[in-house]
Amino acid sequence: MQLGMGRELLGFVRRTLGESTPSDCELQGMVAHLCTALSDALRVADSRGALLGLPGSRDQVGSAENVTL
Hints:
Blueprint: H1 2-19, H2 24-51, H3 57-60
Helix pairs in contact: 1-2
């Protein structure tokens, strides 16, 4: 479900950026939603890695709070 929502969000952002120049407020909103979607995707990947018994799955893949830009 989270991955499907992430795909929809990515499509929306691509269309929006292709059709117009969003305001700073719109860009901030899109970035916030993209961060949430990425965090969800990382959580899904981490969970699947743990189910497969991949070493370090739980402690190497973190939430958006652990990422430094």
